[in-house]
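ok posting inputs for the adenosine-5'-diphosphate job
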Amino acid sequence: MRIILLGPPGAGKGTQSKRLVERHGVVQLSTGDMLRAAVAAGTPIGLEAKDIMARGQLVPDEIVVAIVADRIEEPDCARGFILDGFPRTVAQAEALDAMLLEKNLSLDVVIELKVDEVALLARVENRIAESGGEVRADDNAEALAKRLEVYRSQTAPLVEYYAETGQLVSIDGMQPIEAVAAEIDKVIKASAEA
Ligand code: ADP
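and the output
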């Protein structure tokens, strides 16, 4: 199973990915998590990404594309993967297509989690409140507004991109977690049978 979860910050991609990992034994490839790990470890990539991420902007395509290209070569990706937070630009989507083509692989489905922006702000504020002080550098009102703006301008065009390839399925992400999960399972099942 190879799927992309697409949606704005706070849409629930991480929550749903973790659940899919438990249920289907595939790996979650979160470029956000990978970049945060690089920042924490102080690697050259981390040093370059740190301030960009804290501002809510996008790390350059060539960096994230290289990270993902390396990661999907790892043996644990052979059974499939969930891409969470990648691709985020049309250039990244094109790079991913090229990577998969080269490996003779294809995506099963691209699942868009649709949510409304007012609810997103509330969710992220909740995440900040519940974190007990340990907040992500980009979980503040200013960076979140930037992340939403970046999503609208750079990432939302991927909805059209994958609609054109016929790989897109959109789900109402405003439902309770379990209901969203049930719909995702249905979509995955249907794509496996197709
Ligand atoms: P979100 O909560 O917005 O979904 P993520 O944890 O996926 O956030 O990513 C956090 C930050 O990491 C992004 O705002 C961006 O700076 C950087 N990042 C993550 N994935 C990518 C990507 N595919 N391309 C560029 N930057 C990325």
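notes: The mean pLDDT is 93. Strands lie at 2-6, 27-30, 81-84, 109-114, 168-172.
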